[in-house]
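[recover] target loaded
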C-alpha cells in the first residue's frame, strides 16, 4: 500500500472509531506507522486530511451503491443489500463524527451534503420508483419525499440529544428505523416477497 493510501485508510478508521475532533495528526501518523514529518509531506493540516478522507470514502460508497443497484434482483433485494452496506459503514461510526465534521471541517461537510443529496437520495428515489413498477411498493408513494425522510432518518440517529448513547444502542435504533421505513413501502405482494427473502440464509446473515 502506498504511503498516501495508508494515511487515508488509517485516518478513516480512526475517525470512524473515535470521531474527528479527538484524533490528532500524531494519532494518524502512529496508526500509519510513519513519522509526523512524513505525514505532513502529504497533508499540510488536519482539515485537508479530513476533506480528502471524506471524498475518498464517499467515492467508495458511491461505487458500492452503483454495484448494488446493478446486481440486485429487484427493489426489495436492493434495500436488503443496502442494509448490509449500512451495517458495514454507518452503523459502526462514532456518533460524534458528523457533528465534528459539520462544526470543524466545512469543506468535508460540503462533500457530505453533496453525497447525501445526489448519491444517497438519488439511489433511494430510483429504488422506490423501481419497486412501484414491480408492484412491490405502493403506487401512491412520493419517491422524492420518502428519499428525504430516509436520509434524514439515518442522520437523526447521530443526534445524541434525541438518542443518548447510555439509553440507546446505535445499530439497534438504525435497524428499527429501517424496518419501519421498509414496511411502509410494501404492498401485499411486496410483503410476501420480503418474507421470502428473510427466510433465505444469504439474507439472514445481512
Amino acid at each position: 500500500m502506498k504511503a498516501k493510501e495508508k494515511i487515508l485508510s488509517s485516518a478513516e478508521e480512526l475517525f470512524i472509531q473515535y470521531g474527528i475532533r479527538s484524533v490528532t495528526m500524531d494519532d494518524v501518523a502512529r496508526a500509519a506507522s510513519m513519522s509526523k514529518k512524513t505525514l505532513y509531506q502529504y497533508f499540510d493540516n488536519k482539515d485537508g486530511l479530513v476533506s480528502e478522507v471524506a471524498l475518498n470514502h464517499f467515492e467508495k460508497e458511491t461505487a458500492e451503491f452503483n454495484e448494488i443497484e446493478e446486481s440486485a434482483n429487484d427493489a426489495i433485494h436492493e434495500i436488503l443489500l443496502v442494509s448490509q452496506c449500512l451495517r458495514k459503514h454507518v452503523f459502526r461510526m462514532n456518533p460524534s463524527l458528523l457533528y465534528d465534521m459539520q462544526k470543524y471541517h466545512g469543506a468535508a461537510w460540503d462533500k457530505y451534503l453533496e453525497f447525501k443529496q445526489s448519491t444517497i437520495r438519488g439511489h433511494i428515489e430510483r429504488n422506490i420508483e423501481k419497486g412501484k413498477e414491480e408492484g412491490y411498493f405502493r403506487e401512491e408513494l412520493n419517491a422524492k419525499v420518502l428519499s428525504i425522510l430516509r436520509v434524514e432518518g439515518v442522520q437523526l440517529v447521530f443526534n445524541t440529544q434525541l438518542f443518548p448513547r447510555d439509553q440507546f444502542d446505535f445499530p439497534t435504533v438504525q435497524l428499527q428505523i429501517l424496518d419501519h421505513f421498509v414496511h411502509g413501502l410494501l404492498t401485499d405482494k411486496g410483503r410476501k416477497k420480503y418474507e421470502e427473502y428473510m427466510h433465505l440464509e444469504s439474507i439472514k446473515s445481512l
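[recover] notes: The mean pLDDT is 92.
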